[in-house]
Amino acid sequence: MFTHILACTDGSDPANRAVHVAAELARTNGADLTVLNVIDVTPIVAPYANAPESACSEALLIHNAEEAQTEVLTRTRVQLEQSGAKCSTLAETGNAVDRIVHAAEDEHADLIVIGSRGLGGFRRLLLGSVSDGVLHHAHCPVMVVR
After folding, report:
1. Helix, strand, or coil here: 103?
2. Distance between CA atoms of 107 and 100, rounded to whole angstroms?
3. How far is it between the farthest Cα atoms of the chain?
4. Number of domains observed in the structure of the chain
5. What is the pTM of this model?
């Protein structure tokens, strides 16, 4: 039924559950599994845009975000491999909804699996959730795991 599944994670518990559901679906269907993490550096860097040089380094903030991204993807891949699942990982930077939708198209995914709640918190109240955005813009079916 599915040949390539894109599982999205931000490292949160709901995202981890979604990744494990995606891994089971991939195993059951003999599908390829790609695990995606997206970082959006805009909210990380924007508060410091007018700060004095000594207050913070934009490059350091981005570097720390990229390190955290690598850690999330590595931890997720190791957990999946320990459970017998194989996956590839993909790291993206930008708006989460846009990058997920584009990654699904680029990877020729025929299913996106995403958690219903992530690390967004207050931003979700202002901007809407990532899962809602993906549901509205994806070219393929989307499974939201609660």
Report:
1. helix
2. 10
3. 55
4. 1
5. 0.87
At 135, list the tokens.
């549901």
Question: Amino acid identity of 52?
Answer: P
CA distance 48 to 93: 19
The string over 74-98, giving b where at least 16 C-beta atoms fall within 10 Å of a residue's C-beta and e elsewhere, is eebbeebeeeebebebbebeebbbe
Question: What's the token pair of residue 121?
Answer: 């918190």
Question: What's the CA gap between 35 and 46, in Å, rounded?
Answer: 27
Tokens 């003999």 belong to which residue? 30
The closest of 38, 37, 34, 29 to 6, measured between CA atoms, is 34
Q: How far apart are CA 135 and CA 115, in angstroms?
A: 12
pLDDT in tens, the chain (146 residues): 899 999 999 999 999 999 999 999 999 999 999 999 999 877 665 555 566 664 567 788 889 999 999 999 999 999 999 999 999 999 999 999 999 999 999 999 999 999 987 655 554 544 458 999 999 999 999 999 98
CATH assignment of the domain containing 101? 3.40.50.620
Residue 13 lies in domain:
4-145
Going 75 to 76 to 80 to 81, the CA torsion angle's sign is: negative
